[in-house]
Amino acid sequence: IVVWAIASGRMQLAFLLFLAAAISDGVDGFLAKRFGMKTELGAYLDPLADKILIVSIYVTLGITQVIPLWIVILVASRDFMIIGAIILSWLVDMPVAIKPHAISKLNTAAQIIYACLVLASNGYQFNAEPLLTLVMALVAILTSLSVVLYLAQWVCHMNSAEAGP
Q1: Closest by alpha carbon to 146, among 116, 106, 115, 114?
Q2: Per-residue pLDDT reduced to its tens digit, 89-98
Q3: What's the CA gap between 113 and 164, in Å, rounded?
Q4: Structure pTM?
Q5: Per 3-state DSSP, what percentage of the chain is helix, strand, and coil (rounded to 5)?
Q6: Largest CA distance in the chain
Q7: Cis ω for the linkage preceding 130 (within 30 of 0)
Q8: pLDDT tens digit string along 110-151?
Q9: What is the three-class DSSP state of 88?
Q10: Cα(164)–Cα(55) distance, rounded to whole angstroms?
Q11: Which of 114, 6, 102, 1 is nearest to 61 (CA)?
């Protein structure tokens, strides 16, 4: 629905729905941890759902020319690279367990904040510069650092698994 709202030019609705999704995701995570209701399936589905939402919003904002395409490509490429590395490690029978780094968590938060700022400033017609540029630069830096960390972790895993016992 958020993607449809953006594509339809209904930025206020897109902002409110995205904000509700972000808040409910945070509350869900808090409740799962607080009451010991974490599950293995949830541990896979939650970050996957987060990434699908974020990437689809960034792609839609890029296609509608609300944000620069380079930031869309950077954000989407990072996630495709991580998924591709995991699939490749499974295919060669060297599965890798990827744990989120602190940088990755900060990256996700920055991506969400940037999307919220973009949607709010477009939906409510206010000028959020230079804050938008600053947060976009933060997203770019954290996304790039995250790529480097995950790639280094994956290469290390693949080299150690190849060496064997």
Answers
A1: 106
A2: 999 999 888 7
A3: 43
A4: 0.89
A5: 80, 0, 20
A6: 61
A7: yes
A8: 999 999 999 999 999 999 999 999 999 999 999 999 999 999
A9: helix
A10: 36
A11: 6
